[in-house]
Amino acid sequence: MATLQNIKVAVDAVVFGYKDKTLNILLIKRNIAPYKNSWALPGGLVLENESLEKAVERELKEETNVTVDYLEQLYSFGKPDRDPRNRVVSITYFALVKPEHHTIKADTDANDVAWFDINKLPELAFDHKEIINIAKKRLQGKLTYEPIGFDLLNTKFLFSDLEKLYMTILQKQIDRRNFRKKILSFNILEELDERVSEGRGRPANLFKFNKKQYFKHKKDGFLFDIK
Amino acid sequence: MATLQNIKVAVDAVVFGYKDKTLNILLIKRNIAPYKNSWALPGGLVLENESLEKAVERELKEETNVTVDYLEQLYSFGKPDRDPRNRVVSITYFALVKPEHHTIKADTDANDVAWFDINKLPELAFDHKEIINIAKKRLQGKLTYEPIGFDLLNTKFLFSDLEKLYMTILQKQIDRRNFRKKILSFNILEELDERVSEGRGRPANLFKFNKKQYFKHKKDGFLFDIK
Fold first, then answer.
1. Which helix (H) or strand (E) holds A25?
2. B113 with B105: CB under 8 angstroms?
3. Would the N or C end of chain A have less CB density within 10 A of its end CB?
């Protein structure tokens, strides 16, 4: 095997969180060159004997103190000049978390960590802006064929919260009547007895996602589909 | 940057071809260890200054003499022990070709090259069986939301050829009447004046895929969808 190749392998993570009714991304402020003091995706080089997923989990834990339940591989970025130091191929992952369940804290290569509204991102290091754009498209796509929206909402939510989440992430208006009819027809939500009022409206019932029911339906051939 | 990391970066290609009414994959017979004389996906290490896509194109050309029009990144495989020599992360791609348009010829690391029916694959080197399984799932998925089936058929085809292709790749029966109605409603096929008979049936008209029309529809918001 040719030993002349000197390409490094890194992982980077796009962690999405839904917060204050906006879609957010977890970023760290780099404390090493290049792009020192720039905001960037959490990530770093893969250690010799760890799997790619373990590398992402380790970097996230070290740089942001966030532990994720679920990681999905997004895409690999390998342009020869994407890192000014050395050629680095980055294998990227994305995750969905509920920001209020995590206490973020910077460490190792990061001297700060924060959630940023995806529509108000700062200047980013490397090709991280491009990576985020691809992750956003993947998230928008998945939202229409998998019930991942519930991973971003509180356990108990108003139906209007779910509508708002879809409109925010898909960046378009939805036909509320059809949306409600469709979602309820899937029979994967539990309507609770608890009621809360939002703004000046009448109190409305809270809902809960019934994941067990969803997997049961899925096994029977049901397709979640909000197009 | 840590210089201790000694992970190599390779690319591998899953090239699909539709041939004799079966879904085929292009494989090479390795002439170097490990897995010498085993069949494997075409691929190899990325050169220092070439993009990942260029690396796939070069390896395909060198090992199989096949030139592809379109490559799509599939997934990156990085288990620490997937190559017995050294840790190698493989970034995999898939492509669709019409086998009769290519004269395959082995060279460099390959001492043979051949098309294999996906249901009759030989023993494969490394984790290439797993890579093919993931590529097959991706192809099955894409077939339902993009008109990629036409990239696998002859330019002129019978409607029954298209039906057969869908049934072969999706590995299930389709409701022929609904399928025909749906596909024709998309208004992306041209029915030609040429007629041919298949088997003992009545002569039937040939069709052609109108790619220009498809892209026009797509721009207007049309979604190809065969579920």
1. strand A22-30
2. yes
3. C
**Measuring CA to CA, which residue among A50, A51, A57 is closest to residue A15?**
A57
Q: Examine the domain organization and report whether B120 and B161 are in the same domain.
A: no
Token pair belonging to B77:
């495989």
B103 lies within 8 A of chain A by CB: no
Complex confidence, ipTM? 0.90
CATH number at residue A181: 1.10.10.10
Longest dimension (CA), chain B: 70
Would you call B48 and A85 a contact, using CB atoms and an 8 Å cutoff? no
- Residue range B65-117, pLDDT digits in tens: 999 988 999 999 999 999 999 999 999 999 999 999 999 999 888 999 999 99
> Domain for residue B143, yes or no?
no
The answer to whether the Cβ–Cβ distance between A5 and B48 falls below 8 Å is yes
Closest CA to A141 of A74, A208, A186: A74
Q: Letter for the amino acid at B107?
A: D
Does B177 score more than 60 pLDDT? yes
Q: What is the pLDDT of residue B83?
A: 95
Interatomic CA distance for residues B27 and B113, integer angstroms? 6
* Helix ranges restricted to H, B92-149: 128-145
